[in-house]
Design goal:
By secondary structure, this protein is of the alpha/beta class. It is built from 17 helices and 21 strands. The radius of gyration is 22 Å and the shape is globular.
């Protein structure tokens, strides 16, 4: 017997939960189906040693001040009081360590400009042009007394890569690496990254960086309370095998168990390739759109080391900052190695220390302990990890000697960079485990194990991404593959947008 619902949401990632929450708030009772045993997708949290909560994807966000995006969205859902945003060090929320300099990224456009010019005094004009370009591109008031960069670029910003902007402003090799440091947030090198994507990311954090009290679980729990309070439901361990198409319309889903669930609205927060090519089926797509989905390229994935040290955060001697370790001026070469299926010799490492940002929440770490993560971009190919088949295709990997050796090699390279650039920082380790792209694919079913969805390139940006309302009537999309991209801001903005579109058509 097919069970009937008002709306079905496939996947409980942050985009799907946000969409479901707004649907519930708008009067539709959504059923959220999650194949994992925890809700949240990349926004989920897992616990180790009954002492440490590790966030999978919540590290820091911007636009959390009064009246800004995140508080406003939560207020619209009636749960603003459930999430407390903690400011990071506004004079240096990111601290970059390069071979011959340390740069602290401050909040505020003019403070950022000034800090860059103090560090690179010979490149004041290049920095002025670059900052003015970012401010204008991000939708802030354009500078009126400086030469518009459009004249130097010779084409619209929407058609420029970040590398082309660097060329136009005549930034030096060293300066480019400081300016490109946020590239890890969207996993694309300057030669590929759209300048507008980079501008949006820099703008997001330059307005101020924040962490949530207790970690990202507070946001997930707030959204779950809206869904359940509105009569909706979240079912775990419920993998969707296919989207049921009848009369050329999406009318429900079939689970891996064989159970059928029906609804006039099906919203997928799942990977776009899996949604259309596996769950819908190419036979239900137009040839042009099917080919477009096949041609989509996924962003590079991450390798993450989760770690706990028996060290009080106050003993680290650091403010509430993230640490970016770039052992060489070779950003393009590092990305190229990953694209080719190789580990970088000395990978750049992003260190996120939750205990610094929120030292009072004992779910993150008890007093006297430090909870931290080390992240680096990594190859997506299963062969790079010692296996021939990905877990989503049925491949086994976790206990194979070749996989364990590859994972250990990546761990050693990353920890070697930390020891080289911050000697003795890693100490008294009481817990350590790693998540490879294969881990990510096993838990989220994302193609290539990416956390970022579609690769951020000029030919896959803006309207070239997956539309919220698909060509299949009754089928909608949310998540990292859609217009606003990945991350909490992109996915939550997209989730609210698609929910409002559905509600408007349902009235």
């Amino acid at each position: 017997m097919a069970e009937q619902h008002e709306a079905i949401v496939i996947g409980s990632g942050i985009g799907g939960l946000t969409a479901a929450a707004f649907l519930a708030k708008g009067g539709l009772r959504p059923l959220v189906l999650e194949q994992h045993f925890l809700p949240g997708g990349n926004a989920s949290t897992f616990r180790r040693k009954k002492m440490f909560d590790f966030d999978v994807g919540f590290h820091y966000i911007g636009h959390c001040g009064p009246g800004e995006f995140f508080p406003t969205l939560l207020e619209q859902l009636g749960v603003a009081d459930r999430v407390e945003f903690l400011p990071m060090d506004q004079d240096g929320f990111d601290t970059l360590h390069l071979p011959d300099l340390v740069f602290r990224t401050p909040a505020g456009w003019e403070r950022y400009r000034q800090r860059l010019q103090e560090t690179f005094p010979q490149e004041a004009q290049a920095i002025d042009r670059y900052i003015d370009f970012l401010i204008t591109t991000a939708g802030r008031a354009p500078a009126t007394r400086r030469q518009p960069l459009r004249e130097l670029l010779g084409k619209p910003a929407s058609r420029c890569t970040l590398a082309e902007v660097f060329d136009a402003v005549e930034a030096s090799h060293r300066l480019r690496h400081v300016l490109a440091a946020p590239s890890g947030i969207y996993a694309a090198p300057p030669s590929k990254a759209p300048a507008v994507t980079h501008a949006a990311v820099v703008n997001h954090y330059t307005e101020g960086a924040y962490f949530a009290r207790g970690g990202g679980r507070s946001i997930v729990e707030a959204l779950l309370s809206v869904i359940e309070g509105g009569g909706g439901e979240v079912r775990l361990r419920s993998k969707v095998e296919r989207i049921i198409i009848e009369g050329e319309k999406a009318v429900g889903v079939e689970l891996a168990s064989g159970e059928e669930l029906r609804a006039p609205i099906v919203l997928s927060n799942a990977d776009a390739k899996r949604t259309f090519l596996e769950m819908v089926g190419e036979e239900h797509l137009s040839p042009d759109f099917a080919q477009r989905v096949k041609d989509y390229r996924m962003a590079l994935p991450l390798f993450i080391i989760y770690m706990a040290m028996e060290v009080d955060p106050s003993e680290l001697g650091l403010p509430k900052t993230n640490i970016g370790l770039m052992p060489a001026y070779d950003i393009e070469e590092q990305f190229a190695a990953c694209y080719e299926g190789r580990f970088p010799d000395k990978p750049s490492v992003f260190m996120l220390i939750a205990s610094l940002k929120d030292p009072l929440s004992e779910n993150i770490a008890p007093k006297g302990y430090t909870n931290l993560q080390l992240l680096s971009v990594a190859p997506a190919q299963p062969q790079a990890w010692g296996v021939s088949e990905s877990p989503a295709s049925g491949g086994r990997y976790r206990h194979t000697p070749s996989y364990l050796a590859a994972r250990r090699e990546m761990e050693e390279r990353m920890l070697g960079v930390v020891e080289e650039m911050m000697p003795g920082f890693i100490r008294n380790v009481v817990w350590q485990e790693s998540a490879s792209p294969l881990t990510q694919e096993r838990f989220t079913l994302s193609t290539g194990g990416t956390s970022y969805g579609l690769e951020h390139t000029l030919d896959q940006s803006m309207s070239a991404r997956v539309p919220y309302q698909t060509e299949v009537p009754g089928l909608w999309m949310a998540g990292a593959n859609t217009l606003f991209g990945h991350g909490y801001a992109g996915c939550m903005l997209g989730g609210r947008t698609v929910a409002n579109m559905i509600l408007q058509q349902s009235r």
